[in-house]
Amino acid sequence: MRIWIEFIVVGAIVVYSGAKLAFFADVIAEKTGMSRTWVGVLLLASMTSLPELITGASAVTTIDGTDIAIGGMLGSCVFNLAIIAILDSLYRPGVILSKAEQGHILAAGFGLIALVIVGGGIFLAREGIDLPVFWIGAYTPVVLYIYLRGMRTIFRFETAKMRKELKETGAVELYEHYSSRRAYAGFALNAAIIIAMASLLPFIGSELAETTGWGQTFVGTLFIALITSLPEVTTSVSSVRLGAIDLAIGSLLGSNLFNLAIIGIADILYLDGPILAHVTFTNMLPALSSILMSAIAILTLFYQPKTRRVLRITWLGAIITAIYALNTYGVFFLETR
Predict the structure, then answer these.
(1) Which long-range contacts (CB under 8 A, 24 or more apart) does 97-101 make?
(2) Which parts of the chain sit beneath pLDDT 50?
(3) Which domains does the chain have, with CATH numbers?
C-alpha cells in the first residue's frame, strides 16, 4: 500500500509542475520570438523528458534495471503518441493534427527512423548479434546522431518560417505583464521539481515490480512510462487550452525523439555491454507500436483530413487508442504468462 501512495504522490507533483511548464514555455516563446513548434520540440520536450532521462540513467547505474530503463523509454514513446488521442477528444473542431503545422512531420520522421533502429537492435540482439562498439551497441552513435541532426534540421526550418511570418503579420504579445526573467525563473523552478521527483522513480518501479510480480518490462512500459509521461500530458492539455496546438504537438513528438536519444545515453552508462542485448524481447512490442503510431501521425499531418466525430472521437483518436490498448495488453500477457 505504501508504494502505491508514493507512486500517486510523486505523480500528482509531476502533474502540477508539468502544467506550469507549459504556461511558462508559451511565455518564453513569445518573449524570445521563437515558434511554438521549436519551443515545444526543444525546450518543453527536453524538460518534460527529464524524468525519463533520470529514470533511465538511475535504472542502469544503481539497480541494474535495464528493462525498466528501455521499457520506460519505449513505453513513454507509446504513451506520448497516445496523448494525441486525448488531445483529439478535447479539440472539438476536428482532428487536432489537421490544425497543427506540417513542420511537425520533421520531428515525427526523425523519431520514426530512430525507432526503427532501436527496434532493429532489439531484434538482432535476440538473434545473438550484439553489434558492439567497445561496450556500447553500434546503434547508439547512430541514434544520437539522428537526434542532433533532427534538432538542427527542425531549427533551420522553424527559423525560416518564423522570419516569414513576422514579416507578413508582425508580432502580437499575449503576455506583456510577464517579464522574461519571471518566465525563465518559473520554468526553471518547475523543471527542478520534476527532476527531484524523477530521481525517485527507478526505486518505486523496482519495488512495484517486486511487490506485484508483474515484471520489470511491464512495470517500466506501463507504470513508469505513465508517470514519467505525466509532464507531457499536463503540458499538452494545458497548451491546447491556451490555444497553443503547435506547442503541444511539438512537445510530444520532440519528447519521443529525446526519449530515443536517452536510450543511447543509457547504453553509454551501462558498462556490461550493449544494453539492448540485456533486455527482454517483450520491448519489441512497444517499439513496433510506436513505429505504427508515428507513421499514422505523419500521414495525418501531411494529409490534414477533415472528419466528423462519433461520440466525440475521431478516427485518429480511435486508432491510436486501440494500438495503445493492444500494446499494453500484449506486454502484460508476455511478461506474466
Answers:
(1) 97/249, 97/297, 97/300, 97/301, 97/304, 97/316, 98/300, 98/304, 98/305, 98/306, 99/245, 100/245, 100/246, 100/249, 100/301, 101/37, 101/161, 101/246
(2) none
(3) 2-168+177-336 (1.20.1420.30)
